[in-house]
Design a protein that fits this description.
Layout: H1 8-16, H2 22-40, E1 43-46, H3 48-63, E2 75-79, H4 106-114, E3 117-122, H5 156-160, E4 166-170, H6 173-182, E5 188-190
Helix pairs in contact: 2-3
């Protein structure tokens, strides 16, 4: 069994017990992305360089005996309407095709503080208006079980095809019903209505 096939809790214990390294985990999931991306199309941007740098940083901290968050070194994919400093954030739109945010969304501060390895930005419908990725300017994301079917909301193809261990999404009413029907995988949801700081298109996007 490869590392990408294990659960996040299993991987957290393995990292803690030095049964694998954060770099090994990162490389394995990146390899999985390379194996499947042409067929499934989960990502808009793969942040390979920064992901590897974070994994090295986590391994160094573990070797020094630092106490780390249980999610440190665990790979995560970020929905492409959540602002990520230095990582292209397009909202799967032509208008923001080359936009690289100068600031992180509030929720990204928590992800980064936990030491999670951000693999990149996940495809979505343009400005999150839909649940099939058919309106994405970038490309169509396909269902890993049947590539002729819709992927089933914001997280289904990414988690079930195991190209991430966690996927940070936004909780928008426009596609919640479809996700409840189609998605039985887990995700971390950011409520775009209650706290929209850094969620592009959810409401006013602010930064310090």
């Amino acid at each position: 069994m490869r590392l990408y096939e294990k659960t996040a809790s299993e991987l957290s214990e393995m990292l803690k017990n030095k049964e694998c390294s954060a770099v090994e985990l990162c490389n394995d999931v990146l390899a999985r992305i390379n194996e499947t991306e042409n067929k499934i199309g989960s990502y808009v941007t793969v942040a390979e360089e920064s992901a590897k740098e974070n994994a090295k940083k986590i391994d160094k901290a573990m070797a020094a005996g630092e106490k780390l968050h249980p999610l440190a070194g665990i790979p995560i994919g970020i929905k492409d309407n959540i602002s990520t400093k230095g990582i292209r954030t397009t909202c799967s739109s032509k208008m923001l095709e080359n936009y690289v945010p100068p600031f992180d969304a509030t929720v990204m501060n928590k992800i980064n503080n936990a030491g999670m390895t951000v693999l990149g930005k996940m495809n979505m419908d343009e400005f999150a208006m839909g649940s099939s990725t058919e309106t994405s300017y970038m490309h169509l994301t396909r269902n890993p079980y049947n590539t002729e079917c819709v992927p089933g909301g914001s997280a289904e193809p990414n988690l079930k095809h195991k190209v991430v261990k966690y996927h940070l999404i936004t909780n928008l009413d426009v596609n919640n019903l479809d996700i409840r029907k189609l998605n039985n995988a887990g995700e971390i949801k950011k409520n775009a209505v209650r706290n929209s700081d850094g969620c592009i298109g959810g409401r006013e996007t602010r930064h310090p």
